[in-house]
Amino acid sequence: MSETTGKPNGRPPIYTPDLAIQAERLCRDLGATNVDLAKFFGVTERTIYQWQTDHLEFSHALKAKKVSNERVERALYERAIGYSAPDTKILANPQDPENPIIVDTVKHYAPETAACVVWLANRDPDNWRRDPGATEAADSVAESLSELAKRLPD
What we know:
57% of the residues lie in helices and 12% in strands. It is mainly α. A two-stranded antiparallel ribbon has the order 1-2.
C-alpha cells in the first residue's frame, strides 16, 4: 500500500484458480516447462515460481510434469528394447480398384542403439558415461595449468 494514496502498489495479480487447471493440462499433455507456462500466461518465470509458493493448487498442478516425464521415459525404454504396435496396411484390390483391402497387422520395431546409450548413460552413469576418460583428462589439464602458473613470474 502506498502511504500517500492508501492504494496497493504495482499491478494487480492476474492469478486465478483456473490457471492451475490450465497449467496441469499443459504440463501433463504437452510437457510444458516453467518457461513455457510463463510464456503461455504472459508472465515471467519468476511469477510462475511465486505462484507455486503462494498457491497450493498451482504447485500441485505442476506435478503433472512427472506424468509427461514418465511417458517419455517409457517411450525411450521401448525404443531401447524394441516393441510391437498395431498397424494397418492398405493394399490395392485387383478385383475392385475403388475399394482397397485394409488389413490390421502388428508392426515390430527393432531396438535402437542410440536409445540404449541414452537410457544406460542416465540410469547407470558410473558404467555408461559417454566419455569415461573425461574427468581424468580434465584433472590432467588442471594439473598442467597449475604447474604452468607456478612458473610464471610474479
